[in-house]
Amino acid sequence: VALLRKQGYVKNYEIRHRRKDGEVRWVLANSSLLEDEMGERSIILGTLIDITEQKQLEERILKQNEYLQVLHDTALGIISHTELNVLLEAIMLRAGSLVGTSHGFIYLSEPGTMQMSVKFATGELRRFIGAKTNMGDGLAGRVWQTGRPIAVDNYRDWAERLDVSEYDILHSIVGLPLKSGRDVIGVIGLAHLDPEREFGDEEISTLSQFAELASIALDNVRLYEQFQRELSQRDSDLRRLQKSIDNAIADLRVSVGKIVDKKSDANEIESLAHRMSEELELIATSIRDALSGH
Predict the structure, then answer these.
(1) 119 and 106 in contact (C-beta within 8 Å)?
(2) Other residues' Cβ atoms within 10 Å of the Cβ of residue 275
(3) Secondary structure of residue 135 in the 3-state scheme
């Protein structure tokens, strides 16, 4: 009204209005201040258009763009890691920043078993590091079993929750699968302790995209670790090969020395030649095995 009196009009002016029931509505005002019969500018003529849905759509698009930027930055931030523990920390912290929580965990499968264990956790969930779960048990077990995200608005009242009193601190919680190909190799979970906070559909969708990026990063780390193990094994094989070659050469020198130092009969020379042939074959076999990675 003050702007209207000052300018004599308002054009495309957005007004945020809270109704008595608490609902927020947005209206677009276009108004002019007209003179009455006495020449006083006291008549307001204009229109009010409800633009609440438009504003909500703009806010969703803006939020989605922010999420996409965060996902882009996140991808750059986690893909480069080559150490598992460092990667898990980066994944957890960045996932929490996407949805505004500092409470989260990452389960990873235990090789050769049908269990997963918590490898990293933040906030109030740090106390659960090392905890194990079976396929189908609790939130993480259900995500592992189904391979799909699961969100629970009130964990304390959830029928499939784990019967562990320490989990009573959780309110809303979401779990998402970490995959290698089609196989679930882990579960990332985030939680709100505040009863007023829940995970919305857009947040779950964003976290699902993030979990796909995290899965790629985990695959990269595992491949890197496997490569490092193979390099270490190859180095060990080459050291054994070098030792074998050194021993074979020393034996050959001794054998040749015997031939030179004394007159050997034909049988002894033939025997020494056979041994030399065996030593050379051993060296050749060792070289082939090392080059083939066996």
Answers:
(1) yes
(2) 13
(3) coil
Cβ(264)–Cβ(258) under 8 Å?
A: yes
Identify the bridge partners of residue 286 per DSSP, sorted by sequence position: none
Residue 177, both tokens: 């699968």
Beta-carbon contacts of 191 under 8 Å, excluding residues fewer than 6 positions away, are 101, 103, 104, 125, 155, 170, 171, 172, 173, 174
For residue 37, pLDDT beyond 70: no
Distance of CA 178 to the CA centre of its chain: 7
Whole-number Å distance between alpha carbons of 100 and 190? 10
Q: Per residue in 11-33, pLDDT tens?
A: 888 888 888 888 888 888 888 87
pLDDT, tens digit, for every residue of 56-83? 888 878 877 777 777 677 667 666 666 8
Beta bridge pairs of residue 116: 109, 133
CA distances (Å), 39 to each of 35, 42, 140, in order?
5, 9, 74
> CA 180 to CA 225: how far, in whole Å?
15
pLDDT tens per residue, range 220-247: 877 777 777 777 777 777 777 777 777 7
Q: DSSP H helical segments within 100-165, as ranges?
A: 138-146
Phi and psi at 70, nearest 5°, equal: -65, -40
Among residues 170, 227, 216, the alpha carbon closest in space to that of 195 is found at 170
Q: What is the DSSP letter of 168?
A: G
Q: Are 50 and 39 in contact (CB under 8 A)?
A: no
What pTM value is reported for the model?
A: 0.60
- Residues β-bridged to residue 114: none
